[in-house]
Every structure is written in structure tokens, then in C-alpha cells.
Amino acid sequence: MPARPQAEGPGGDRLSTAFTAGEQQWQARLGKLRDVVRQEMVTRQLARELPAPPVRLIDLGCGQGTQALRLARSGYDVTGVDASADLLARFGRDLAAEPAEVRGRVRAERARIEDYAERAGVSHFPAVLCHGVLMYLDDPGPVLRAIARLTSPGGVASLLVRNGDALAMRPGLLGDWATCAEAFGTDRYANRIGLSARGDRLGDLTGRLAAHGLEVTAWYGVRVFTDAAADDAAPPPDLAALLDCEERAGRTDPYRQVAALLHVIARRPDGGKIAP
Ligand SMILES: C[S@@+](CC[C@H](N)C(=O)[O-])C[C@H]1O[C@@H](n2cnc3c(N)ncnc32)[C@H](O)[C@@H]1O
Predict the structure, then answer these.
(1) Which atom from ligand 1 is nearest to the alpha carbon of 20?
(2) Would 274 be classed as within a structural domain?
(3) Which of 4, 176, 240, 265 has the most CB atoms around its CB within 10 Å?
(4) Domain limits at 247?
(5) Residue 63 alpha carbon to ligand 1 centre in Å
(6) Is the pTM above the cut of 0.90?
(7) Are 221 and 261 within 8 A, CB to CB?
(8) CATH code of the domain in which 51 resides
(9) Domain count, the chain
(10) Ligand 1 centre and the CA of 88: distance in Å?
């Protein structure tokens, strides 16, 4: 397996996505408080939900590879797939600083999620991750199909989506009442990196996943208390206590219901069929 992400891809620069216009802003905010909370919650929740390593997993829309790297350090064999040459290059730089055994557990490919499995000729994985991608897709159908196609019988899929049931929370907490009023009646929102994006309602997503043979077995809220923090807010000195409170709220009703993001865990039963 290649030890470093490969920036070349079959589509070259034609691999731009709806996310591409916000990529620089995204990169500028990596390591800031809102990103730290998001990544740390996902890491903790995955530790509860994934089978213990060694296990092969695929991270669809891996971006800069935050979770992929952490999982590889924990002993997982990780394939990352992303359309962005810049983010894969950043992933490659971070990976290069890791010990050889970690590097050897990672490969990354520049590709579109939607047709990656067919192009690469890969089959199933016991764990499939797709975090922070669905909100950029007007029609999430093809990516949900790709996630389902890649999840093996007995396998688990992990999705991180914008919480479409609580889109009024962010503008309300920021005191933007015009946007807040509109948010009650739409699944669209303008996100913090300047893109028009889409929320998913938990009930709708559960139904869509069920149609692909994936049963939602757990869900968490991500960023309950810190979603309205400034874009450039740095992690505070009491970060550990903050993260513990976020984690507790993320698995506790009613707090998790109004989180900015939903971390949804779905499983294909043993012997469950995979649609072609
Ligand atoms: C918000 S970033 C999330 C990155 C990472 N998963 C995380 O949670 O930190 C979204 C990523 O999805 C990628 N992406 C969006 N649509 C894609 C598609 N159709 N095929 C491949 N990658 C896509 C973008 O290039 C970007 O790296």
C-alpha cells in the first residue's frame, strides 16, 4: 500500500465539488475551537462504535485526514478518498511525520466518492466513514448509495451531517433574527465558510439509510455549546472540561437534539444484502 496520499487523480482539476469554493476558509479554521470540538467528539464517538483494530476502513471525503490519521495511529488500516488535491497534499505532509508503521497503514486516493468503488474496483469495508460531506450535496442520494455499497454485511457506517432539525439554533444564538426566522422553514443554510449548504433531518436520513439496508443504531449531537463561537476562537485553557461537557451533551437528550451536527451510526446486519 502506498504510504502517502496521491494527489494525482483520473479527473485532474475537473474533480472540483460544491465544497471547493470554501476550501481555503475550511483550512484556515482547522485547529480552531469549533474544529477541535468537532474532531474530538467524532474521535470519542468512533471509539465507542467502531470494531476494535486491526480493521480495514474507508474514509469518504477524508479531506485533511484528521480522523484517518488518528485511526491509523490506533491500528486501523485506512483508505482515504477525497476530490481535493490541496487537502490530500496536507494529509500527505502530516502523514509524512508519522512513524513508518502508521504510514504503512494509510493510503489515500483522489477521486469522487460517487463512483470511487466502481472505478477502483474495491469491494466492502467493515467500517465506512463519511463526515462533513452530505451538506454540500443538493442530492445526497449518490453518496448514500456509495456508502451503502461499500459497507460489508455486519459492517458499520459513520456519517456526520448538519442537523436539519435544528437549523434555527445557530442564527438564533448569534442574534441574527431574520435568518433565524427563515431557518424554521427550510433545509438550506449559509454556512460558516461562506457556502450554501443543506441540513439532513434525522428521521429522513434514517429512512434513506434503511432503504439501503443500513439500520441506524446510535446517533450523537456534535457541537452543542460551542457552535456559536467565533471562527477564529482558539481552544481555551479549560478545553478538557469543555470537551467532557460537549461529549456528555452529545449523548444526552434534549441537548443532542439541537446540536449543530449529527453523528449517525448505521449498521448492515450480518447476512444483510447489498444492493448492486
Ligand atoms: C468539510 S470537509 C470534511 C473533511 C473531513 N471528512 C472532516 O470531517 O474533517 C469535506 C470534504 O469532502 C470532500 N468532498 C466533497 N464532495 C466530494 C465528492 N463528491 N467526492 C469526493 N470528495 C468530496 C471535500 O473535498 C472535502 O475534503
Answers:
(1) 25
(2) no
(3) 265
(4) 12-267
(5) 5
(6) yes
(7) yes
(8) 3.40.50.150
(9) 1
(10) 10
